[in-house]
Design goal:
Layout: E1 10-17, E2 21-22, H1 32-47, E3 56-60, H2 71-78, E4 86-90, H3 96-109, E5 115-123, E6 129-132, H4 143-148, E7 160-163, H5 164-168, E8 170-171, E9 176-177, H6 178-188, H7 193-213, E10 223-225, E11 228-231, H8 236-239, H9 241-245, H10 264-271, E12 298-308, H11 309-314, E13 321-322, E14 325-330, H12 339-351, E15 360-363, H13 368-382, H14 386-391, H15 401-404, H16 411-425, E16 432-438, E17 442-447
């Protein structure tokens, strides 16, 4: 009696995603539930999967709103899936799309089902502005009182309005935003701006090459509205194409923490406690993080089939890879960008393989600063040579989140899709690792 795990291989079958739209552009008016529904239906069509074979859906969604409570269930009901299908919405910030996959695997291991659709969706363009306060205040008692007091609402003590994007990108415990965590890492690990810009230019180049060579077309579903196609290809790489043609333009981008009257001296005063082993040096401590060497805010959705090997074979599904194991690790939120180092070490230890046995790495590029910090920390702490993989084209061979964009919960699934379709392309790849950092100091890694 009691809950028992069963021994079964977990496999990843067909996967698909929307093109990634840049904030406030082509996909701005497509809701996250619609993006997810399109993706699920596209996945069913691509794989010819019988809808009633789906036991459940796990969907990551970071910007959760009241208009689509449990968006996984909303997507089930809006798609061609059966009403009986279970549905769970996951919120683990930027590793949500990975957690959706590992959550589906856990359900299978525990015998709750044999086949799930897992993924993530995000419409950062539709993140709202929110009124902060509470309903004990007479002005906020009801929608009618809000409207009646609208003109003077913000003059009332305890009532404010916030941008949910900016609020969501700020760590509430350490009180610093995600870009600041990248600058903390850059200062702490002596990652200069030139190195970050060079990394960014190369990942842009790889992404554009992959777009033109058709790599992403193998698993990207155009988003349409009636007879109109809203977006066929990832949007942001083409908005920044000039940076590859003229890399010198990178140096013209203003740094985020040394402009508008804000200085690095003030940065160290605010966040110096997190910059371990370093102090501010007049004339030497320079800001490094820019919008061009950081990932963009985006809209998009992605999904993949997670199944027991037995069920996948019964349904004649194309098996793209086996999910060997996974790991999640929490570190200091101020250093959130290096969490993949620790999640990777944990995952490899569980699998009983070495870093050198991993043939391909797909790493979420939150910032060039964090990627380069991972290269340094991984080598120093574990002897893992991330940088050599990057230089050899075995880490993000088709670019990453800096050029493609970062639709939060969809990104974790997107990096897994990158890994799977590169494995399909190159039969010499035995092991692939998909890994990402997340706000709050989380890191996730999936070994395929």
């Amino acid at each position: 009696m009691g809950v028992k795990a069963r021994e079964t291989k977990i496999v990843l079958c067909g996967g698909i995603r929307t093109p990634i739209g840049h904030l406030a552009k082509s996909l701005a008016r497509v809701s996250p539930e619609h993006l997810m529904t399109l993706t699920i239906n596209g996945l069913l069509a691509k794989t010819t999967l019988y809808p009633h074979a789906v036991d459940g859906v796990m969907v990551g969604w970071v910007g959760q709103g009241s208009h689509a409570p449990n968006i996984a269930r909303v997507a089930v009901l809006m798609s061609h899936l059966p009403e009986k299908a279970h549905a769970v919405t996951v919120q683990a910030n930027c590793v949500s799309g990975m957690e959706a996959i590992s959550s589906a695997a856990r359900h299978i291991i525990l015998g709750e089902g044999d086949l799930y659709i897992a993924g993530g969706t995000e419409s950062m363009s539709s993140f709202p502005y929110a009124i902060r306060g509470d309903r004990s205040m007479k002005e906020l008692r009801s929608l009618d009182t809000v409207r009646a007091n609208w003109a003077s609402l913000l003059a009332h003590e305890g009532i404010g309005i916030v941008d949910c994007i900016e609020e969501g990108l700020n760590d509430p415990v350490k009180n610093l935003n995600m870009a600041a965590t990248a600058e903390v890492c850059a200062q702490m690990y002596s990652i200069d701006r030139a190195s970050q810009d060079a990394y960014a230019v190369e990942t842009y180049r790889r992404a554009l090459e992959a777009e033109e060579n058709g790599f992403y077309a193998t698993h990207t579903l155009p988003v349409t509205e009636g007879d109109k196609t809203l977006l066929e290809k990832d949007e942001y790489p083409y908005l920044r194409e000039s940076l590859v043609k003229k890399p010198g333009m990178m140096s013209k981008a203003p740094v985020l923490f040394e402009s508008g009257g804000f200085s690095m001296k003030e940065f160290y005063k605010l966040y110096g406690e997190h910059i371990l082993g370093k102090t501010y040096q007049e004339g030497k401590s320079r800001a490094t993080v820019t919008l061009f060497n950081s990932c963009a805010r985006s809209d998009g959705a992605a999904a993949i089939i997670v199944a027991s090997e037995k069920r996948a074979k019964e349904l004649n599904l194309e098996i793209l890879g086996e999910l060997v194991t996974w790991g999640y690790y929490g570190n200091n939120p101020a250093h959130m960008g290096i969490a993949p180092v620790f999640a990777t070490a944990m995952t490899l230890e569980r699998a009983g393989i070495s870093f050198d046995q991993v043939d391909l790495i797909e790493l979420h590029e939150a910032f060039a600063a964090t990627c380069l910090s991972i290269f340094k920390v991984g080598r120093e702490k574990y002897g893992h040579h991330w940088e050599s993989r990057w230089k050899d084209g075995k880490l993000n061979p088709h670019g990453g989140s800096i050029p493609l964009g970062h639709p939060l919960a969809a990104t974790g699934t997107r990096v897994v899709l990158n890994a799977l379709y590169q494995m399909k392309k190159d039969s010499k790849i035995n092991y692939a690792l998909a890994t990402a950092c997340a706000a709050g100091g989380l890191g996730g890694a999936l070994l395929i």
